[in-house]
């Protein structure tokens, strides 16, 4: 499982406060803990800050220094802010989050993907918004993958977000996302399938239980990347248990290591 740390996001009140106050210790600690817990990418979103592009540059420098084993996933809807980041911070193996089928998003983001040779998160959303059926999600994802391939992206650099919505507002929405994931995995074996895990439990009690359960369901349908809170010991343990049961953890070593961490 490719783990993308979710904590450096300005939609989280404590993170927004830390960003706005330019609290170096807070941002550094968030990045370090996610890296130490096993994140491959750090998702960084400063969209709710006063000056998004300057904050992106400031926070990216701190985060990558604190977690040198991680790459950056630049999470922004502003092509200008993304360009400013890539022109001012030296980034290796970076990703952009995200692009959709909407023309303004495509025209703004695709040149950056080409120029800076980044991985890209694609959301199968068109002008009508989030598709309401699994079939429409697959159709939109198919179109988006074709565009990204034509733009020069290799399948291994494409991350298709299955766009799971909150179960609280649509009881069958998670199942539709899972159906789409299964179909896409069969058709595109080398494209990554991504889930923003915290979305599924929004508005419900015991969110951790829902997130952990959905993660296992998604992995069973072929999802291989998740934006998640890997610093949560219970979440990490459930992830390692699922990897073990799916034959992805030789000799159960990662599960045992995660278990020992919860016992400390």
Automatic annotation (TrEMBL):
PROSITE patterns: PTERIN_BINDING. GO terms for biological process: homocysteine metabolic process; methylation; tetrahydrofolate metabolic process. Pfam families: Pterin_bind. Residues 1-246 form the Pterin-binding domain. Signal peptide: none annotated. The keyword Glycoprotein does not apply. This is Putative methyltetrahydrofolate:corrinoid/iron-sulfur protein methyltransferase.
